[in-house]
Design a protein that fits this description.
Elements (H helix, E strand, L loop, with lengths): L1 H21 L1 H25 L8 H29 L5 H24 L4
């Protein structure tokens, strides 16, 4: 849950930063990219972490697989919707926002692994 919070904050920060530096179109493009990553990762977290315990090992594996496949499909669909429905759009800012949020998620996982109390 903390990783999703970090990703949401990074998505908003990327949008605001790009907006202030490069203009409004870059700002909302970066925000949309960040929101695509955040939404897809939220779906994965919801789907993948429903089961716990040794007795549900098969269900855990199936839910991880379904969560990852759903995440990829959702991200692709959201990118398609943004490219079709949002005009004007800066694709570079869109992908930067997406990648920054993905990187924040990976970094947050590494930081929590090294310091599980925080």
């Amino acid at each position: 849950m903390r990783v999703l919070l970090v990703q949401a904050l990074v998505a908003v920060s990327a949008g605001v930063s790009c907006g202030l530096i490069f203009g409004m179109v870059a700002g909302y493009s970066a925000l949309l990219g960040g929101l695509i990553a955040f939404t897809a990762n939220s779906y994965f977290a919801f789907k993948a972490f429903r089961y716990f315990g040794a007795r549900s090992a098969k269900a855990i594996v199936q839910s991880l697989w379904a969560g990852e496949m759903g995440k990829q499909i959702l991200a692709a669909a959201l990118f398609a919707l943004v490219f079709v429905g949002v005009k004007p759009l800066q694709p570079a800012a869109l992908f930067v926002g997406y990648l920054v949020v993905l990187g924040a998620g990976a970094s947050a996982l590494l930081l929590m692994k090294n310091n599980p109390k925080h």
